[in-house]
Amino acid sequence: MARIIDGPKMNLIGSNVACIRKKLKMSQQKLSNQLELYAVYICRGSISRIEDYSRTVTDIELYAIAKVFNVNIEELFDRELLEK
């Protein structure tokens, strides 16, 4: 059975992270800095790799990203968000 990381995309939220971050007028560096307040250390380059689907995201990182963006975790997976 294939695992999700066997495909070309290493996560399911990359585009939505970028979309929400840009709507909040937040740089990748600022997102990185804000995540540190939750003791989650993701450098700016890793934020970029999440957004281009080349890096996996842990559950703790997912939780912290949702907290920084002040959204429900489900919104990070919402395909309709990309159409708005």
Describe the protein in words:
With 84 residues, the protein is mostly helical. It has one domain: Orthogonal Bundle (434 Repressor (Amino-terminal Domain)). 45% of the residues lie in helices and 0% in strands. It is built from four helices and no strands. The longest helix has 11 residues. It is globular. The termini are far apart. The model has no long low-confidence stretch (mean pLDDT 90).
- Quote the average pLDDT: 90
**What is the CATH homologous superfamily assignment?**
lambda repressor-like DNA-binding domains
Specify the structural class. mainly alpha
Strand content: under 5%
> Helicity level, as a percent range?
40-55%
Q: What is the chain-wise order of helices and strands?
A: HHHH
Largest sheet: none
- Low-confidence segments, ≥5 residues, pLDDT <50? none
Core attributes:
84 residues, mainly alpha, 434 Repressor (Amino-terminal Domain)
Chain-wise SSE layout:
Blueprint: H1 14-23, H2 28-36, H3 44-51, H4 59-69
Helix pairs in contact: 2-3
Describe, in short, the structure shown:
With 84 residues, the chain is mainly alpha-helical. It contains 4 helices and no strands.
